[in-house]
Specification:
Helix content is about 45%, strand content about 20%. By secondary structure, it is α+β, with helices and mostly antiparallel strands.
């Protein structure tokens, strides 16, 4: 027994889990039919599966996948591809082969969602995000500088429009130029979805950044319905209604709603919403910014009065710098250099009390707009708040699945990278839904971490008069994980 050895310890559980969801979604059979190549030593469908499962388990570059990740997992046993056959060149070519299958994959997923979870595409959530590049990305004509959600305005980026179901299951996406305004992307996305799934009276939910009168008119012309956020400026028209009674509860958290009428847009319904939690958050943010901005302006005022700051252009730049940094609080102050021309002798700082009073009234309040008839305002609010599913999908894809930053430089490789991230998101969200249906919560990340501890290994037994006996086995999971796996169907 002293000569019994354990060798070739490999990660098994997490890659096995990723492959199980991949097969349950039918992506293995779909890509085997779409990407068959009799001349390829390893099927492109197998390599595409490897790319997605690796990102599902541990996001890394194609080079790291080939040099490190694959060798530390049991994927060679599960996929039947020897370790020596996986290299970065082969994986890059697999990206090129996968990208043309994007539309077929998205159409296939809707059918699998319906079979597995009963999901339909008559209610969709739409949002836009961006991801930035490391490098110049000169080979990508969509790489542009624009509004960066990642706080990297110094980098080129692309924008991504994502459509998900209310449960957070990804339905489709599109890649846009990095300087494209959110409001201009909706038409393209609706046409894409209608070409793929047919025209129907769907309900669309999206935030105020995508709202325009042209977009809403186009949706009405298609027979679509919508529940959307509105610009903050539109809330000012309902100042009187904010003070009136007649609110009804919409959630246990204290959110209240009421229906109001817009004087010029009577064809749509408008729903006033107010949230005590949101009010406290906005009040604290505004108070903190106002305090800091006032301190900075007072410091500039002192420098002017003492004669240390006598250049008007320098003074204006400093004022503009701090007003631009504290954007929430800048409207609370009226600032004037005295005199208006020549060397400044003073800075007049005045709190705008009327603006401050309106800010206090509007804190925690927002306005929704919809053309859906026959639904209670609380129900419309519940539909709109599900937009957080799209936002959560973006956070998951960026932080855990490695969507950002992008190191590829050509347009095709960038779009293939985004497709792999999208498919990894599909696997994660599908796993979330399965766990929820089985009463196991909705945190697929935690399940992947637990499954990662399940390893495969070789037990080597020395035998007299012959070579050693090698047994490849999978380690026994802990009891809680055994119970979870027992409920896998």
């Amino acid at each position: 027994l002293k000569r019994v050895k354990a060798e070739r310890l490999r990660r098994f559980g997490d890659v096995y889990l990723g492959l199980a969801v991949w097969k349950r979604l039918g992506l293995d059979g779909l890509l085997a039919g779409l990407m068959s190549d009799s001349h390829a030593e390893i099927g492109w469908d197998t390599l595409a599966c490897l790319l997605v499962v690796a990102r599902f388990c541990e996001p890394s570059s194609e080079l790291a996948l080939a040099e490190r990740f694959y060798a530390t997992t049991a994927l060679d046993d599960l996929l039947g591809v020897p370790e020596g056959k996986i290299n970065d060149d082969r994986l890059y070519r697999a990206l090129d082969a996968l990208l043309p299958q994007k539309d077929a994959i998205c159409r296939h997923l809707i059918g699998r969602y319906a079979e597995w979870f009963g999901t339909q595409v008559d209610f969709l959530l739409y949002d836009v995000t961006s991801t930035y590049f490391e490098g110049q990305a000169e080979g990508n004509d969509l790489a542009r500088r624009g509004y960066s959600r990642d706080h990297r305005p110094d980098c080129s980026q692309v924008c991504i429009g994502l459509v998900v179901t209310p449960d957070g299951l990804p339905v489709g996406y599109e890649v846009f130029a990095g300087n494209r305004a959110d409001v201009t992307t909706l038409d393209d996305m609706i046409e894409l979805l209608e070409d793929r799934y047919g025209q129907a009276r769907r309900i669309w939910v999206f935030d105020r950044g995508i709202v325009s009168e042209d977009n809403l008119a186009a949706l009405r012309a298609r027979g679509a319905r919508y529940v959307v956020g509105t610009p903050k400026s539109m809330l000012r028209r309902f100042e009187t209604q904010l003070l009136e009674d007649g609110w009804e509860p919409a959630a246990e958290s204290g959110v209240e709603v009421r229906t109001v009428t817009h004087p010029d847009l009577g064809s749509d319904r408008f729903i006033l919403c107010r949230s005590p939690q949101r009010r406290e958050k906005e009040r604290a943010i505004l108070a903190r910014q106002a305090e800091r901005l006032e301190a900075k302006l007072t410091a500039i005022q002192s420098a002017i009065r003492s004669g240390r700051l006598h250049d008007p252009r320098t003074a204006e730049r400093r004022i503009g710098r701090w007003m631009g940094k504290f954007t929430r609080a800048e409207e609370l102050f009226r600032v004037e250099l005295l005199p208006a021309e020549g060397t400044p002798t003073d800075l007049q700082i005045e709190r705008r009390m009327e603006v401050e009073a309106w800010a206090a009234l509007a804190q925690g309040a927002y306005l929704l707009r919809s053309n859906v008839e026959g639904e209670e305002p609380a129900r419309l609010w519940q539909w709109y708040i599900q937009l957080t599913q799209a936002e959560a999908a973006f956070r998951l894809t960026k932080s855990e699945l490695g969507l950002r930053p992008v190191y590829h430089q050509t347009r095709e490789r960038v779009e293939a990278h985004i497709l792999v991230c999208f498919l990894a998101l599909v696997l994660r969200r599908s796993l979330d839904q399965w766990m929820h249906a089985k009463g196991l919560g909705t945190c697929s990340r935690r399940l992947v971490e637990v499954m990662r501890e399940v390893r495969s290994l070789d037990i080597v037994l020395e035998v007299k008069d012959r070579g050693p006996v090698r047994l490849r086995v999978v380690g026994q999971p802990d009891k809680p994980l055994q119970q979870l796996l027992h409920r896998r169907r």
